[in-house]
Amino acid sequence: MLKKLSLVLIISFAWGITSELEAQFQSDTGGALVRITQPGQLSDTLSVWGDVLTPGRYLVPRGSTLAEFMQYAGGPNSSRNVGRGNPWSRLRLSVTVSQYDAVTQEMDLMKFHLRFNDEVPREMREFRLTNDDIVTIEVRQAPGFLDVLGVVGPILATVTTSILLYDRVIR
Fold first, then answer.
1. For residue 41, what are the contacts with CB-CB under 8 A and spacing of at least 6?
2. Residue 88 main-chain phi, psi, to 5 deg
3. SS3 call for 45
4. How many angstroms from the chain centroid is the CA of residue 120?
5. What was the pLDDT predicted at 111?
6. How far apart are CA 44 and CA 30, in angstroms?
């Protein structure tokens, strides 16, 4: 009898822990919520979109900086950097933080721009995020010589072929 009672208690305890853990990792929309904070620690819920390794909703320690949050999300995603081997291409990072101001009921935008290999600006390193902020990260590639040549070359070839065709066949 005691063994059955202890087994029922263990199963119900395990069921309660499982449902609690499941609730920590599910958001209202059914998507995953990445928890960075320890249980019981004050935290903020933030969203990150765009060119990061793991976009989504995060539960991070309260008062986290923008640079720390970008590290939690895995940093800028390099899969879009098609010109990595191109020495003339210049990669730029554009970071936008959307904060809702409850007093004015408007969204405030903070924008940060930097080159990929430059030092991170102090304002970006020290920028404190608040609850329900949305961070959008975009990796941009300034076109280099080979990129322009890749667009202009086929256009010039088409125009040249059309002129030769007109000159030899139609005329």
1. 61, 62
2. -90, -10
3. strand
4. 17
5. 92
6. 19
> What is the CB neighbour count within 10 angstroms for residue 113?
14
Q: How far, in Å, CA of 82 to CA of 140, rounded?
A: 10
- pTM tops 0.85: no
In this prediction, residue 147 carries a pLDDT of 75
- Residue type at 87 in one-letter notation: P
Q: Which residues contact 143 (CB under 8 A, 6 or more apart)?
A: 89
What is the per-residue pLDDT for 89? 53
Confidence class of residue 21 from pLDDT cuts 50, 70 and 90? very low
Q: What is the pLDDT of residues 137-167, one digit of tens each?
A: 998 877 777 778 888 889 999 999 999 888 8
| pLDDT the model gives residue 16 | 46
Check the CA dihedral 164-168-169-171 and report its sign. positive
Is residue 111 within 8 A of residue 127, CB to CB? The reply is: no
Residue pair 144/86 in contact by the 8 Å Cβ criterion: yes
Query: Rounded to whole angstroms, how far apart are CA atoms 36 and 39?
Result: 10
**Which residue, among 47, 50, 51, 49, has the nearest Cα to 60 in the 3D structure?**
47
CA 133 to chain centre: 13
